[in-house]
Every structure is written in C-alpha cells, then in structure tokens.
Amino acid sequence: IPAIHQKLEADGTEKVEGSMTQKLENVLNRASNTADTLFQEVLGRKDKADSTRNALNVLQRFKFLFNLPLNIERNIQKGDYDVVINDYEKAKSLFGKTEVQVFKKYYAEVETRIEALRELLLDKLLETPSTLHDQKRYIRYLSDLHAPGDPAWQCIGAQHQWILQLMHNCKESYVKEQKGKDTFLFYLHTHTHTHTHTYIYIYVYMYICNALLHSPMLDLDSDVRPSPIGHLSQTASLKRGSSFQSGRDDAWRYKAPQQVVFVEKLTKLVVSQLPNFWKLWVSYVNGSLFSETAEKSGQMERSKKNARQRQNDFKKMIQEVMHSLVKLIRGALLPFSLREGELRQYGGWEMKSELSGQWLTHVIQTVRLSSESLTALEIPNDMLQIIQDLILDLRVRCILVTLQHTAEDIKRLAEKEDWVVDNEGLTSLPSQFEQCIIHSLQSLKTVLDCKPGEASVFQQQKTQEDVCQLSIGIMQGFIDCLEQLSTKPDGDIDTSHLSVDVSSPDLFGSIHEESSLSSEQRLLIALSNCRYLERHTFLNIAEHFEKHGFQGVDKITQVSMESLKELDQRLFEMYIEFKADPIVGSLEPGIYAGYFDWKDCLVPTGVRNYLKEALVNIIAVHAEVFTISKDLVPRVMSRVVEAVSEELSRLMQCVSSFSKNGALQAKLEICALRDTVAIYLTPESKSSFKQALESLPQLSSGTDRKLLEELLNKFKSSMHLQLTCFQASSSAMMKT
Hints:
By secondary structure, the chain is an all-alpha fold. Among the domains are: 37-162, Exo84p, N-terminal helical domain (Methane Monooxygenase Hydroxylase, Chain G, domain 1), CATH 1.20.58.1210; 399-488 and 518-575; 593-726. It has helices at 2-15, 22-78, 81-95, 101-126, 132-144, 151-190, 195-213, 228-235, 250-255, 258-286, 292-297, 299-309, 311-333, 340-346, 357-375, 381-411, 429-443, 445-448, 461-486, 519-547, 553-591, 609-628, 633-654, 660-676, 683-694, 702-718, 720-735.
C-alpha cells in the first residue's frame, strides 16, 4: 500500500499541478466555514448553557460551604452554638486543607466568624454573675472550637476575683449604711418632729437601706439556702424577755447592729457562691467540662494535666477567699485582732460600743452554719482551719463580753433591793444574784459546747486566767453591792415598800411599822444574806461553773469566800459596835450612880436598876436580831455578852477593896447576869465572869450564901417575862 501511495503521489505531482487532495481539502474547509457561519450562535448558546449547568452543579454540590458564613452569623444570633460547632467541624473536615482558591476564600470567612464566636463565648464565660451550668456550657463550646489558652482556668480565675469583689462591696455598702444610719439618728435627735413625721422618716430610711442592700450587686435572695438568722429565730431566744425576729424582717434588720447583719449577708454570699466555684474546679480536674469530641482529641487529658499543675494555685485562691471572709468578719467584730494595715483594708466600722454577748452568740451560730455548709463541699480541712480559728476567737470573746456585762448587771442589783425579808431573814438579792449568774451561763451554753472540729475555749492558759478573773470580779462585785447597801446613809434607802414575811415572829415591833430602815437593821439583813451566800449561793454557783466547764473553780470559790467572810466580819463588827458599845458604856455610870461605894454600902435587897437596864438593852438587841434572822441570834448575842462580861470583869478588877455587903452585891449582880445569859456564854465570856468573881472576897457565912440565892431567885421571878426570850431562843437553838 505505501508503494501504491507513493506511486500515486509521484504520478499526481507530475501530471497534476499540486497535491491531488488539495482541492478536496479546500472544498472541505469552505464547507466547514459555511457551517460555522450557519451554527455559530447555536453553538455559543450551547457552550453557555453547559458552563451555567456546570456552575450550578458546583454550587449545588458545595452550597454548604458557601452558605456557612451567613448561617454561622444567624445561628450565633439565635444562640444555637451547638449547630455552629457541628457545621464548623464538618467544614473543617471537608475544606480545611483545600487548594481551590474559591474554597479557601469562603473557608477563611468561616474561620473569621468562628474566631469572633470564640471571643464572644469567652466574654460570656468570664461574665459575672453566671450559673455553673452556663459556665460549663461555654467551656465545652470553647473546647470544641479549639480556643487558644485554657478557658476553664480563666473562668476559675474570673470567678475567684468576682467573689472577692462581692465580699468587699458587701462590706463597703454596710459601712456606708452604718454611717448613714448614725447621721440619720443624729438628725432625729437634734430636730423636733411629731411622732408621725418621725415614723415617716424611719420608714423612708429603711426603704432606702433595703433597696441598697438588695441591689443586683449584692442580691443573693434567690439562693435556696435558709438564712441563719431565720433559722436561729425559730430555735432560740437569745435575749431576756424577747426573741429574734425573722432574718427577712426589715424591722429586725433595722434593730440589729450593722455588724451582725453584715456577717449574715457576707456568709450567705460566700456560701452561695463558693459551692459553684468549688464544683467548677472539681469538673475541671476530672475533665467532665469537655465533650466526647474533646476526649477523643486528647484535650481532656491535657486539661487534667493542667489541673494537676494548678492545684497549688487553686488552693491559694480558696485560701484567699477564706482569709478575706475571716478578716472581714474580724474587722467588723474583732478589730483588735488585725494589724494596722489589715484594719484599713478590712475594717472601717465605727465601734461606738462592743456587741453584747447575745449578738455575738448569734454571730457564732451564723459562722458555724456557714462552716458546716463549706465542710459539706469536702473542701480540705486545712483550708477551712482559719474559720475554726475565727469561731474559737469569737467564742472566747463572747464569753469574756458576757461575763463583763454580767458583772455590770450585778453592780446594778443594788437598785433592785426591796428589803423584803422572808422567814429565813433573807431578801431576794441572793436569789437574784444566783439567777443572774445562771442565766448568763445558760446563754453561753451553745458557745461553750464544742461542735465537731472545734477546740475547747479553755485550751489556752490566758483564756482560763481571764475567765477566772472575770468570774472572781463578778462575785466581788456582788460583795461590794452588799457592802454598799449595808453602809448607805439612812437617807439613801427607800423603805416605803419595806415589809416582813407574815410568818416571822414579831414580838417587839415589826420593821414595817417604822418609817425608815435603821443602819443596824440593814447590817443585820446584810449579815443574814452573807450567811446564806456562804452556805448556799456561792456553792451553787461553783457547781454551775463546773457544769459549764469553767477552769479554776476552786480558786474562784476560795477567793470569793475569803472576800465574803471579810465583809461579813466587817459588818458584824460594825453591828456589835452599834449595839454593844452603848450597853458596855452604860455599866460604869450605872454601877456608881448615886455615889455608890463598894466599901460602904447597905445590905443588898436585889439587883440594881443599871443591870436590869443593861439586860433590857440586851433583850432589845435579841428582839431586833430575832425579828430579822433567828439564825443570827446566837452569834450576835454571844458577842454582846462577851463585851458586857469583859467590861464587868474590868470594872470589878479595878475596885481596890470590897466591904462584906459590897462583895455580896457585886456577886449578886455578876451571877444574875451570868445565869440570865447562860445559853450565850462562850469560853471568853465564861473566863471574864470567872475573873470578875475571883476578884471578889469569898462569902464566908451560910447566911450570906442563902441571901444571895434568895435574891437571885427573886430577880429571876420578877424578870421572868423579860427573860423568856432567852429560854425560847435556847430551845430554837437546840433544834438547829
């Protein structure tokens, strides 16, 4: 075939001008050009249709990517972050590594919007206040969006600063309110208003304060935790004759000291905020903040590793919150426990007067409830130890303040003495004193009792010593009160209400029949009270001290008893001086009345009047003492007899000589006195009578002794009625 072709080519070239197919080619080219001219428009439309069809196919196939930027914006506005994240993950897997320029362009738009979403979610995450649910949600979103850094830790840091800021804002608001309240009260005191106007001002002020304290910055009332004040108001009465009202009651808030309401609000704030803060950390540690996608990507493991590295940092955060809580409370209640620099930061309160023991008891209960709530979160004990230290200091302070206030109350008991004497010779004062102590100790029961994890308030030696000294001061204060009452001038005693128990024997005139109470009667009442205090009240109080765990009770009792006995002895000596001295002083003038001479006197005919007068005066002392306190009679009478016998012995020993009749007269009077007061004789008075008789000449004749016996019997018979009191006292004394 090639050979034939070549032959044809050669022949054609020779015989025909040019190639034999040239003509055919030209014909075909002309036919093609004609065809192009005829179908150019149709073919153009076809190419355009094909191009459009191809573009539509591309758009249909990749419309997800092209619509994604707009869809992301719409879903962000609606808050459908889960949809955005799912679409982004899908786009990233399909076009994350594309080389097609148009895809790169649109994917870059997607990344721009996702970056804006990351910033938006981070802002929402760090926004305060927010719920734990929202915080976890935003952290998961940021994790799925592969946000740079560690959003969870950033959130923890932001919450930590937010809690600290809340605490300080709380303090500042109450300090300002305290100053405003003081200014308001000063205005009320310095301006004259009608009662209606005053009530209106108070109502308006309370409304403003309530609005301030419940501002959004501090509004935590939506929290479901019950108020410690409300809880306490239903379970205890912390003040004599009254009880705390509900913590939500505005009137109660107005009456309560600002520091108390502040501690209530501050602890509620911490207890409401810290649990979510702690749970956020726990979720961060165990990786539950992140979704399954994060777990598959290994982000959860990285988070756990970060959490382990930041444990110390978080511990410092918790400790800072606890320190701020404690120091803010110390600044309000125990400012002396802070350093000067700390006081400027955590104090600022106007401490016109210290809180009473009742309010401190309430504060302790509030802090205890808060501590229990925090312990329930399983926060390590070492982080909460500072709260236990605060509670211990508050308990110690509460005890000291309560004892100080009790001492002040005891000093005012003198104003309550009514001088009404019962059948035991007592007024109500010892009972009031004992009840005051018992009430004070009962109010401290919850403070003295140790809750789980608490130490004894008496673990420190200084506390033991302070409590012991205050207790001794209380006892001494009452002793001083007794002394003050018993030694007041007559004009200072109000006896308009004075009476004696109807069961008390009143043979020689009742006290209530007199218009005033004499100094001697007050001394007797005080002596009777002292006797009862020594034998009963002080011992009962010592038992109550021991029951409540007080240390050094033996010392308290010993010192108090010694002081009481010293007072008793001083009052007793004063009374004896009042009563015995006039009797003793009347003996010598009475003996020598009418120029009587022991050397030159007549035969005795009976006991002379001076001795009878002395006995009547002794009987008057007996009656006065017996009317107030039968138990004091032996003691007083024995001492009066001692004084009289001692003086009589002295007078007899001063006589240079006696006649026969003088000796008989002296012996008659000495024996008459001795036999009359025989039941009150003491070794001292017996010795005095013996010395007096020994100083007399002995009676030699039986006639003289018989006359002496007859005169003695005559004296006893004539004075029988007056001397009956001694016999009655004798039987009563024997019974006791």
